[in-house]
Protein 1
Amino acid sequence: MRRIAAATAAAGSLVIATALFSASPAAAADTAEVFVVHGIPGLTVDVYVDGKRALDDFAPETTAGPLDLPAGSHAVAITAADAVDASNPVLAADADLAAGNSYSLVAHLSADGTPTLTPYSNDISAVGAGQARLVVRHDAAAPAVDVRAGGAVVLSNVTNPNQGSLTVPAGTVNADVVLAGTSTVAIGPANLDLAEGSATFVHAVGSAADGTLTLVSFVIPDLHSAPGGVPAGTGPVDDPALGVAIAALLVAGVVLFAVGSRRRVAHRSR
Amino acid sequence: MIRARSGRFPRRPGATRPSRSRRRAATGPAAGALLIAVAAALWVGCRPEPAGQTVSSVGVSGALELTVAAASSTTARPTAVAAAEPSAPPTSQPSAESDSSAPAGPAGPPPPAATPARVRVPELGVDAAVIPVGVDGNGDVQVPDDVGTVGWYRFGPVPGATGSAVLVGHVDDHLQGVGVLARIGDLNPGDRIEIVDDNGDARTFAVVSREQWAKDGTPMARLFDRGGQPRLVLMTCGGAFDRSRLSYDDNIAVTAVPVT
């Protein structure tokens, strides 16, 4: 079980760095992958992992990763973009990563507008043939929302910092986010291209009060499954005339046989 | 003297003929049995046969090797020799054939693989349109309704790109008759398959394997693998036909690799 110990940040500016951490290609079996999502409007930051800068000048409303990190516990710190080290982070958390798993670390505003860091496990299980997975996370300073696809509610009453997931036929979905139980659009609509065999992670971020609500997404591909089977044949052609002829002969033959037999019995008994 | 009337013999004194009504009574069951026998003979002799084939598998290990990515990442199309099985029947090896219809020399990098539009199998006289298909409501491949049309599984690679490009077609249909891929079980390693894409570019493939399985043993993950070497798989149904379910027991698949 993953444990996150979140240290609250002192009020102050947040900056995120955007240089990707170039990890050596580690054996997949011993590592976990981490996506980082910057959902705090207006601030560029650096991201430190275990005291080393992993992301340099990370811009708001962008994502980074995947970073391949060894399984185990790691200290994550978010600092100002011009900070020289992680000694004075604005946000910090410890993440316990299990090997072979996929995570998102999302820097965002809580429901009341406080900057915070929330970890999520990314569902990277296989997606059925012809399908796509859609995950939506509420990471915005906004009340509960419903998520709609093509105008129909697909996830209802999602609150900060929770998520909802659904599997849909692969294709383009016209999605929006409305205040829960209403048709008041808070974000969108936006066209989401959901590729077959992929999982798309959509984060609603920003502040309703400041009018900065928006969606920030990334895609994990290659989760596809083979189809179940190839049903390729329904048999030889039925010839209706032949069928009728056979049926007629059969009926006539049975009738003749039955009636004739009764007559023979009747005769014998005389 | 008793004169015989036409067609009648004089009766022996004391002998009696069976009454006319009893003779009629005897012909009823006999005629009935005859009609039933004729109906049975028509049923057995005149009903059309299911088109599904039953074939022996060849070249299986060659097909299995294709699931591993080529060691050299710069190789766009491995030669057929590398994938051909040593114990394949003694048809001519694809690399040894000098096909006079092939271009005389490399004219430049091969065009990028595109959506298939046509499939030709000279050995079988097949020349059919190819359309992209997906999955049906059961999660199975959506095989084209028209038995003369071949489906390309659009969520996998195009023929010539990395991975297994799969083409499917009905072996037969109880309303339309025999399908265009009905005889792929006749193909042997070395036989050619040509794919023409949406841009009009043609690619030739050489068969490396022919396999048949009961449907619950069809290796779907391997056949629809999107990694490994570029290959083409043709699939249809075969084996025994289950009349109660209007469905065949088996799948037949032919795997082919690009030839230069």
Protein 2
Amino acid sequence: MQLVPFSAKLKPITLAVGMFSTTQFAYSDMDAYSGILSVASNSKTAEHIKSVDKNDYIYFSQKFRFQYHLMNWEKKTTFLSSTKSIIDDEDFQAIVSMGYAAVPYILEEIESKPSVLVWALNLIYNKKITNNPNATITDACKLWVKHLKK
Amino acid sequence: MGEALEEIKRFLIDIFPNLSDDPYFEITSSATPNYNCIAWACNYSDRWIQPTYLGRPSLDCVVWWPPEVTEGIEPPNLKELFEFHGYVECNSGEFEEGYRKVALYYSKDDNNWTHAARQKSNGKWTSKLGQSNDIQHGTPEAIENNNYGKVYCFMKRKFE
């Protein structure tokens, strides 16, 4: 039997069908892998994703807002010793005005890096965490974290 | 550690440009929020010495403004605090054997006190920079800048 080149035996229609089926296989494989098809076809999942997206949006926009003000505040006040200047700073006030929404981010921050950011909690909750005259800022940060995370 | 220190030094020189010409400039502690410059000038390293915050709820760990001293943010209030601690005003920051000196700083723009530095027994000066590090500097003027303003006055007391 004589071998002939493979392409010479394929008619155009056969080639087109072959390409189409291969392409579809490839795409469906990708969809199955990424889960895109299942999301689009399952209304409960789609609904869930929508709500997660909304919550995520709120979470990230608040976190972004907090981080933005925190960065500006630190830049301007890290070297200051005057409580008034530190607290009256507009970015510090912006954090305080976020109210309870800022609390998780403040806790995250003072847990990893104790700082006078803890005073934002004094202003948000309108109270001190300790009246111990020997407590330091680091102690106060630890006490707030313990108090609010329990 | 050496590289990190150099980086902090460069950063501080950005903020306090006069330090670039100061051969005695050194970082002498890690950054800590546990005390401020006023406490450090009074030789404490475990508290913020500030007046309670003028009509606002008290803040954690800001409790050490002596009740005998008028609360306030104007330079004479800070001077009164150091008088309470036994200091008297003097003419300069020149080293005097047997005396400890402090330099008080103020911002001319808003007439607020901003900082205090303390002279060490070797004649150099030491400052706690807000929540940042302690540093040694050769002269009180080395840390004058936009935030700290200028030296308002010098005070001294017998070294004990």
